[in-house]
Design brief:
The strands form 5 sheets. This protein has a 6-stranded mixed β-sheet, with helices on both faces. Strands 11, 12, 13, 14, 18 and 19 form a 6-stranded mixed β-sheet that branches. The protein is α+β, with helices and mostly antiparallel strands. Helix 3 packs across helix 11, helix 4 packs across helix 5 and helix 8 crosses helix 10. The chain contains 13 helices and 20 strands.
């Protein structure tokens, strides 16, 4: 029995047999303004000669399948002779549905698959579960992963432990590719050219020129520069669907920073729009959506899990969905997570080679798995038991067997992990023991060297001390002798001073006596001279009288 894998996305359907390659086809219908009466379905978009003003008729609204008429027409086209030529009597189908899908939608899908198309068996599952199966199949030693599925309608963050979906950790952001395209249309219509009806063209512009900035504010400053200094600005040539079938970016050497192009081409000049639009994935509040960014939702989801799992989730963040293809998204998300995650936990963000088809590839692997027949619901079970009983009667033993296989895989994985951790820890212990012994031996050698050096220094100090002590003793003897000599000299000088004082006293007494004698003699002489002078004056006076 052939198995058809259908990842039924809101924008594109990824479809193909499990033995073949995948085809990515628009999951909608179109109407062109040039041929309003004709409706084009899925890949018939290529038949439209002038896709300008293309009108989309989508089966999904806000991520859930609500327009069954459109979806039937798309499936009729996909399953029909023009595409996969499905033989329903000999085909099983794996089809994806949104997380927390409504039971009414599930019942309608069962009715269409089993009653209208009459598939022999079917498996409804989430795209994230198929991606997780793909991831664990390629990395059997891993225990956990955290899927970031950013698609057309919204972005989901879903933790998985093996193949089990941890519902309490699921986080949804109402930001998807549709919102980004609509926001870009509004910006361009406000600033340059009215393009609100050109969803198809602007979606292509978004995919061609937008990127996720690593330094948002720095790029914003660069985008405001003039001339060649502005490395962010790009000129995008819009298609006219006659000579230019698909838009493209002007090469940098052909861009004009002043004046107009003379080629007659219709140009969109995009600067900060290139990175401001994808920035909504990380900061939805920039346009008034009061929700967490992708990085914050990841951390919040991991924090809701048991603490023992945190390290496994941070090391296994897997990106799927078309929005993860923006250049720089993986690097920016990893940097943002690194800033929010605990410092001791490593962070790793993984991006598959083809994130759009990653879930489909997981479904392909599941179709070849020996457990596949145990998890599908057959047409006979559905006809006999209806929507719920058939699922329960078939899924309970399947889940039991699957649980046993998961438990065995988990135990094997745990044992491998424990053995790997034990060998790692054993090697680390041996390495630490060797390093410790080397450090101890080097420390002992250093201690012995320092002890010998200290002993030598001690001996040297002892000899110096003895020498200094001997010198001090000799100096003390010399000092004592000098003190004795000084004392004798002092006593002799005191005695001499006393003798000098005595001799000085006697000398002074003799001199005083002699001075007194001389004074008396002088006084007598002066008195005699005075008397003689007075006598002479008296004689002269007497003589003058006579």
């Amino acid at each position: 029995m052939a198995t058809l894998v259908l990842d039924n996305g809101a924008y594109t359907a990824k479809i193909g047999y499990s033995q073949e390659s995948v085809s990515v086809i628009p999951n909608c219908q179109f109407r062109s303004k040039t041929s309003r009466l004709k409706t084009f379905t899925a890949n018939q978009l290529d038949e439209i000669k002038d896709p300008s003003g293309l009108f989309y008729i989508l089966p999904f609204q806000k991520g859930y399948l609500v327009n069954w008429d459109v979806q039937r027409k798309v499936w009729d086209h996909l399953f029909g002779k023009e595409m996969f030529k499905v033989d329903f009597s000999d085909t099983s189908v794996i089809i994806t549905e949104p997380y927390f899908n409504f039971s009414s939608i599930q019942e309608s899908m069962n009715e269409i698959l089993f009653e209208e198309y009459q598939f022999q068996s079917a498996l409804r599952t989430n795209a994230g579960s198929l991606s997780a199966h793909h991831y664990f199949h390629s990395r059997p030693s891993e225990l956990c992963c955290l899927l970031v599925d950013s698609g057309f309608s919204f972005t989901h963050v879903v933790p998985y432990c093996r193949s089990k979906k941890m519902k309490e950790g699921i986080r949804r952001l109402n930001v998807g590719g549709k919102l980004l395209t609509n926001h870009l249309k509004e910006i361009i219509s406000y600033r340059q050219l009215h393009v609100m009806d050109e969803t198809h063209v602007i979606n292509q512009v978004k995919e061609d020129v937008c990127y996720v900035s690593q330094q948002f504010y720095k790029d914003m400053e660069v985008s405001q520069l003039k001339g060649g200094e502005n490395t962010v600005v790009k000129d995008y040539v819009l298609p006219d669907f006659s000579s230019i079938k698909k838009g493209f970016c002007k090469p940098p050497d052909e861009m004009l920073f002043s004046g107009k192009y003379k080629t007659g081409e219709q140009i969109l000049r995009l600067a900060n729009e290139r990175f401001a639009v994808p920035e909504m994935l990380l900061h939805p509040s920039d346009i008034g959506i009061q929700e967490m960014g992708v990085h914050e939702a990841i951390v919040d989801s991991i924090q809701s899990m048991p603490e023992e799992m945190h390290a496994h989730f941070y090391q296994n963040v897997v990106l799927t969905g078309g929005n993860t293809l923006f250049p720089g998204f993986r690097e920016r998300l990893e940097a943002e997570l690194r800033s929010l995650a605990p410092a001791h936990l490593p962070v790793s963000v993984l991006q598959p080679a083809n994130p759009i088809c990653y879930a489909w590839e997981g479904g392909k692997l599941l179709a070849h798995s020996p457990d596949y027949d145990e998890v599908v619901v057959t047409r006979e079970d559905y006809e006999e038991n209806g929507h719920f009983i058939s699922l329960l009667s078939k899924m309970m033993p399947a889940k039991k067997k699957r649980l046993e296989s998961i438990t065995n895989k988990y135990l094997k994985g745990t044992q491998c992990m424990l053995e790997r951790q034990w060998s790692t820890h054993h090697g680390q212990r041996q390495k630490m023991t060797q390093q410790y012994s080397q450090q101890v031996s080097s420390a002992l050698q250093q201690w012995e060297t320092e002890a010998q050096r200290a002993e030598k220094q001690e001996k040297r100090l002892n000899s110096l001390f003895r020498q200094q002590q001997k010198i001090l003793q000799e100096a003390r003897v010399v000092q004592n002798q000098k003190l004795k000599t000084v004392r004798a000299l002092y006593e002799q000088s005191v005695k001499n001073i006393e003798d000098m004082e005595k001799s000085n006293d006697s000398f002074l007494q003799g001199a005083e006596q002699e001075l007194r004698k001389e004074m008396a003699t002088l006084q007598k002489k002066i008195l005699m001279d005075t008397q003689q002078q007075e006598m002479a004056k008296i004689r002269k006076w007497l003589q003058s009288l006579f």
